[in-house]
Amino acid sequence: MKNKAVKVKKFTRRMQKKLAVLFIMIMLALIGLAMRITQIHAQNGEKYAKQVLSQQEYDSRTLPYKRGDIVDRKGTVIATSEKVYNVIVDCKLINSDEDYVEPTIAALIKCFDVEEAVLREALATRADSHYYVMKKQLSYEEIQDFVVLMNDKENNPDIKGVWFEEEYLRKYPYSTLASDLIGFTAKDNVGYWGIEEYYSETLNGTNGREYGYLNDDSNLERTIKPATDGNTVVSTIDVNIQNIVEKHIKIFNETHNFDESGLGSKNTAVIIMDPDTGEILAEASYPDFNLNEPYDLSSLYTEEEVNAMSSETKMETLNALWRNYCISDTFEPGSTAKPFTVAAGLETGKLTGNETYVCDGSETVSGSKIRCVKRTGHGLETIEQAIMNSCNDALMQMSYAIGIDTFAKYQSVFGFGKKTNVDLPGEVNAANLMYTADTMTAVDLATNSFGQNFNVTMTQLAAGFSSLINGGYYFQPHVVNKILDANGGTVKTINPVLQKQTISLATSEKVKHYLYMTVQEGTGKSAKVDGYSMGGKTGTAEKTPRGQGNYLVSFIGFAPADKPEVVIYVVIDEPNIENQAQSSMATNLAKDIMTEVLPYMNIFPDQETAAEAEAAEAAEPAAGGTEAATETQAETPAGESETPASQNQGSAEENLDPETGESLDPNASIFE
């Protein structure tokens, strides 16, 4: 096979000439383009540079959304976002023309509180910066003088390089009102604590964007993608009721401020709830804090004390101040737990309501002596009288009949040891602070029956108690009932959630009557608002370590007695007095609050007032009055006293609270 010869093309002279001509033409074109660019730069470079700069800095920017408001149940704004402006200085643009420097500096000094030396230093040290924040978070009114000067192009053509960056600042018109319930926000609209945190995604919107560009005719065009504002959260709180609660909490603390702490107790807290919906109408604890200045500790500590704190200590102090006592702190409830014990016994048939008990001042359980609040004993009592007298001895005897299994089951039924799932962050899980049927001993059963040796939160107890007096219906407590869009349209309605029925209507009616008698004639008498039927139960819980004189006192009550419309729960943790074991402090605070709240809620008096009773008695003829008194005395069953239970607790040497019948001895522990 023959190999074919490879034919090689020659680079002819003619081809070389063509290539040379093409090269020369390209070079001439490049030289011409370079000359034109140089000419443009020399003649109009500054103009085009400013145009490009203008597009970059002013015509492409973020449009911030407005975080939604938080309003009370009647629409009163309690948290909102106000538009504010940051003064931005474009140092490079101002420095680009010496004619701009002095007029712009003069205008800035005239309109804003800024030192000339600081401004000149910024222009010098940040000469190439397009973004220098000269002032932050000014109101619309505060920038208007400069805006007028800047827009007056005829008289002020050389004021250049200043623009206003928009953002929103969270404001709380009522400052400290409902501080631990509302919460606050930090940078970038991040919610901390309260409704601000739990509903943060609902309250937040989406930023918009404004784009600027040059069209084919070199005209500036703008495209705007508007911001989407956040939704408004409608809370169940009533600002007026909240104000009443906080006013009286502060009065209590000012009245009992006897030491350097400046407080009337370690913590004073109140919940007011609608028992038929679970809606929280007011919730407060003291000390509180300023939502507009949440990191400010000056109301509680001196400047020297704050400065002496390490960063860790300060943060721990702030977190303790911010936390919501009503959902984040647990405590032994004391005698406010007694109605739950009675309800469990009645509901299961372990108790009939006809039992009587002999209180001799103590019970000995598994070798441990556990005392009643009245050391000498209450004597013979019915279940009703045991609740009225707040008798530990009788409750322990009831617990024997109820038994460990039933008692532990009903603690769970009433919600103790479980989260209520209230729509607030930070609710504590108290399951590890409760006994189960497997872990509960006879001593635990006895002490749990009157509210010691297990822990609850205020919200747990208020929700469970509401079920005792509303027919047995347990509603999930909540603080928000509606979500609105930025235009006021309803996005979502949050209806009451009925989770379960804890007891029957018949049991509820019995327990409600016992609680009514407790306020009428028993340990809760000092909580009664004149002219209103009310029910309730006092509580005095000895804190650990025992025998140190530290107590948590409380009162939980409702009105009206026949068909409750409102529940109030008052807790005073370690009142600032020598003898802390006085639940009368809680009943008196509850009375002060309810005296204003009930008329405000259009709940009308349903009983004769003390003044009316006194006037009627004075109007009766003397003979008739004597006859009536004799008749009443004759109708009193043998062995029963007409004296109110709270005044028939014992002699003065027993050192009892004259209003509640409880021991005033700070070291008189019920445990031995």
UniProtKB/TrEMBL annotation:
InterPro entries xrefs: Beta-lactam/transpept, Beta-lactam/transpept-like, PBP_dimer, PBP_dimer_sf, PCN-bd_Tpept
Cellular location(s): Membrane
GO terms of molecular function: penicillin binding
Annotated Polar residues bias: 643-652
Residues covered by region (Disordered): 610-672
Domain Penicillin-binding protein dimerisation: 66-222
Occurrences of domain Penicillin-binding protein transpeptidase (ranges): 269-594
Keywords: Membrane
GO biological process, one term: cell wall organization
Coarse class of the protein's main subcellular location: membrane
Protein name: Stage V sporulation protein D (Sporulation-specific penicillin-binding protein)
